[in-house]
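Per reviewer request, we include the raw input and output of the structure prediction for the construct analysed in the revised manuscript.
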Amino acid sequence: MLETMNEYYDNYFKFNGKSKIIRIENNKLYFDKTIFYAESGGQESDLGLVKLNDVELNISNVQYEKENGLWKTAHYVETEEDLNQYFQVNDEINLVLNTDRRNNLSAYHTASHLLFIAAEKVRNGIQKSVIGCHIKEDSARFDFITDLKFTEDELNIIANHVNSMISNQLNIRTFLKNEATNERVWECDGFEIPCGGTHLTNTGFLEPLKVKRKGIGKGKERLICISSQDNIIHGELGAHIT
């Protein structure tokens, strides 16, 4: 059960909003609802600001905390001062996201799923060998257990398939599959992947991607995707909001 309602599932492009403080602990604030994505599923957390009147402080990290079956969302505030001198429980505050970071994370999380689908097409069953993933502002990667290095031919095939999905401008849908477990699903072109991250709404909003490999130890391989351009998002994202 979630203590804080995640508003980003209703709109990935809501970059500011009002919330009410329900708890203050050391340098952490907890709200009744939030637009901030907490680090999970390999995706790094959102960053941004919390504002109240003349007070404006940085939120430098967002993490889930589990206590007695309840998932709490802790917003870490960047200050050496006591937060109680700025805020009180039940204060209505304004939250503001770092929009560039959110957009890039959403784009690379979307890209990671295309990479995953393409890798599975090249090596059937590779999805069962995933041991980790990491979604950052400038790249996305998957780690696999495998004794076989990805060859240049395989990397080219994977990249071509990823970029074909991008050029085909495929619609993306995310939805809540199981309310009891809060399980969410990402769906595109007939593929469904369990995922609670943030995403773009169409593959065509991505720039073409490059795919690389890296050995990370005996019996382990890493696939990395990065944009072929200076940006990961094609054009002005604002024009794509639906």
